[in-house]
Amino acid sequence: MSRPTPLRGVHEALGATLTDFAGWLMPLRYGSESAEHNAVRQAAGLFDLSHMGEIFVTGPQAAEALDYALVGYVSALEPGRARYTMIVNAEGGVLDDLIVYRLAPEEFMVVANASNYPMVAAQLTERAKAFDAVVDDRSDRYALIAVQGPRSQEILATLTDADLGGLKYYAGLPATVSGRPALIARTGYTGEDGFELFVDGADAEPLWAALTEAGEPYGLRPAGLSARDTLRLEAGMPLYGNELSAALTPFDAGLGRVVRFDKPGDFVGRAALEPLKDVPPSRRLVGLVATGRRVPRHGYPVVDAGGAVVGEVTSGAPSQSLGRPIAMAYVDNGPAEGLAVDIRGSHEPVEVVDLPFYRRNK
Amino acid sequence: MSSIPEELNYTKEHEWVAGLDDGLTLTVGITAYAAEALGDVVYVQVPEVGASVSAGDAVGEVESTKSVSDIYAPVGGEIVEVNSAVVDDPSLVNGDPYGEGWLFRVRLEGDADDLLSAEEYAALTSGES
After folding, report:
1. B65:A226 CB<8 A
2. Which residue range or ranges hold the GCVT N-terminal domain (chain A) (predicted)?
């Protein structure tokens, strides 16, 4: 039985197609997912992301505890700022990718994926034991609503006095939105400018309604997980379970930059990861653009000109922005020419391209 | 609730079949229920004209943002026409599944006894939704 978010009634009233995602009953799409995708690229989209986890770490040694527990240099973060980071196991395998917000000098919020946050909370609790810090999983209390797209700031500005123009990318500030308390973060998973609002679950419905009304003149529309997936794929952003897993290190995923060996002290995974930092991996995560119209999908083999398997697709979808199917794949080092994806027995040619597939005009 | 036109026949694989009462050439497409379940259709592969098919054969595929599904021959016979418009514009499957979104025509050989009535198909889909 999937868990509903506080916005379930809203999704049902909108006629959403609901789907189970990581144990949650989530909106897959409200109408056409292509229209939702395009609305986010051209105007704005409204997302329910209440399935994400919010884990608070507080106390005099909260920063040191997170420096030890995560690969990032959390203690160097200024209050009000956020960082993309990861939690790895002792072998360096990725347990989850995270965003850490420093809300105050001794207060941090760790945002984890729906499928992983109970494990992340347990790991943080274990790893923080030797520190003067308290780990508190508040995921059940929070709803998360995202407004994403080029018109996001104009829409949100009609509902808050907060200084949105002064809010940098990967920063957050406590504010009031439509009369209700919200942590406004300038973050997202779409490749567009946008905001994520962390709010009390009881405030989710009225805030959704206020945003819907405020966004109407700007072309805002509700957008489901299907659009979220194609948007993040175009933006070249990894999805845990697809591009990231415990079998891969951050270096394997081409994200070695998030591992901060320059921070003080030991951290979980340091001993395993340190020897890997200058070793070029034998395969790398690449972008693929299909020549034809069939879509390479998760798990499909990548083959070379001779038909030998040289990699595997991690995510794939038709791209609205490119007009062709795109995919991310782990591919062995070797010639990039002549590659194809085995799509149910037929070798469909692909071009290897740099990620991301899509970059917004700033 | 998606529409299930009374005058058509259906299959368990969520295809519709038109023309059973009139003659031997049947038109085949996917139902509104299937189109809604798939989401935006982005690619349609139809069978070759002239191909000889048996009931239940996979003869093509319909691909949406999130998934790909086979198209099956609802009856045995020869493929006599395919809808090139839907190959060029797969969104016709979503926009007009029972009309412009038709997929192919097959000249019936043998029987069509396994097809469902509209009432039977409605019962099938209400059980699934």
Report:
1. yes
2. 9-263
* Cβ within 8 Å, pair A295-B40: no
How many CB pairs below 8 A link A and B? Answer: 38
Q: Are A228 and A151 contained in the same domain?
A: yes
Instruction: Break chain B into its structural domains and give their ranges.
Output: 9-108
Is residue A89 domain-shared with residue A119, that is, in the same domain?
yes
Q: Do the strands A3-4 and A24-29 form a parallel or antiparallel pair, or are they unpaired?
A: parallel
Give the range of the structural domain holding residue A193, as residue numbers without chain letter.
3-51+141-234
Q: Give the residue ranges of the annotated binding site of A.
A: 196
Which of A178, A207, A234 terminates a domain? The answer is: A234
Top CATH class, B9-108: mainly beta
Residue A220 class from Cβ within 10 Å (0-12 exposed, 13-18 middle, 19+ buried)? Answer: buried
Q: Let me know whether A38 and A59 are in one domain.
A: no
> How many domains would you assign to chain A?
3
Q: Which residues of B touch A325 (CB under 8 A)?
A: 42
Identity of the residue numbered A227: A
Q: E strands along A230-345, which residues?
A: 283-290, 301-303, 309-318, 325-332, 340-343
Kindly state whether residues A337 and A213 are assigned to the same domain.
no
Number of Cβ atoms within 10 Å of the Cβ of A138: 13
Question: CB distance B40–A317 less than 8 Å?
Answer: no
Distance from CA of A21 to the nearest CA of B (A): 13
> Is B43 within 8 Å of A294 when comparing Cβ atoms?
yes
